[in-house]
Design a protein that fits this description.
Blueprint lengths: L4 E4 L8 E2 L7 E4 L8 E3 L4 E5 L2 E4 L4 E6 L2 H7 L1 E3 L4 E3 L8 E6 L5 E3 L4 E9 L28
Antiparallel strand pairs: 1-6, 2-3, 3-12, 4-11, 5-10, 7-9, 7-12, 8-10
C-alpha cells in the first residue's frame, strides 16, 4: 500500500473510496458544488470535477478509468478512455465524460463517475538507431498474429 496526499478543493468534495478489500481501483465522485444535476446529451462530452487534487508518490501516476456500471448501464465513460494524473500535477482531478447512448443521462453531485488506479511507471531514455533487432513477427501489425 502507498500513501497518497489528497487535498479537498471544495467543502462538498468526497475522498475516493475502495468498493472492496481487494479492489484495484478506488471510486471518484462527482463534485458539483451547486448541487445541480448535470445532463449529458447523446454523444456529448462534458468535464466533471472531483473537487480533489492528489499527489501520487514519485514514480507513480494515477490512471482514471471508466466504472463498469456507469458505462454499461448509462453509456458514460471517460472521453479519453484512460486519463492520467502525473505525479507532478497539482490541479483538480477532472473527468471528461463522454455519453455514447441516445437518451440524455444525468450526473448528480456525489455520483461515482470513474475509478482511479495508482501505477508505477518508468521513463525511457530514447536512443536513435539505424536498425532494430529482427524478430519472428517483424513489422506485422494489426491482426498479424491471428484472429483467435
Amino acid at each position: 500500500m502507498i500513501n497518497v496526499k489528497v487535498k479537498k478543493l471544495t467543502n462538498t468534495a468526497k475522498l475516493p473510496t475502495y468498493g472492496s478489500k481487494e479492489a484495484a481501483c478506488c471510486d471518484l465522485y462527482a463534485d458539483i458544488p451547486s448541487g445541480e444535476t448535470i445532463g449529458i446529451r447523446p454523444h456529448e462530452t462534458i468535464k466533471i470535477g472531483t473537487g480533489l487534487s492528489i499527489e501520487p508518490p514519485e514514480g507513480y501516476c494515477a490512471m482514471i478509468y471508466a466504472r463498469s456500471g456507469i458505462a454499461t448501464k448509462h453509456g458514460l465513460r471517460p472521453a479519453n478512455c484512460t486519463g492520467i494524473c502525473d505525479s507532478d500535477y497539482r490541479g483538480e482531478c477532472i473527468v471528461a465524460i463522454h455519453h455514447d447512448t441516445e437518451a440524455t443521462q444525468y450526473i448528480d453531485n456525489g455520483m461515482r463517475i470513474a475509478q482511479l488506479m495508482f501505477v508505477p511507471y518508468v521513463q525511457a531514455n530514447f536512443e536513435e538507431v539505424d536498425s532494430l533487432s529482427d524478430t519472428e513477427r517483424g513489422s506485422g501489425g494489426f491482426g498479424s498474429t491471428g484472429t483467435k
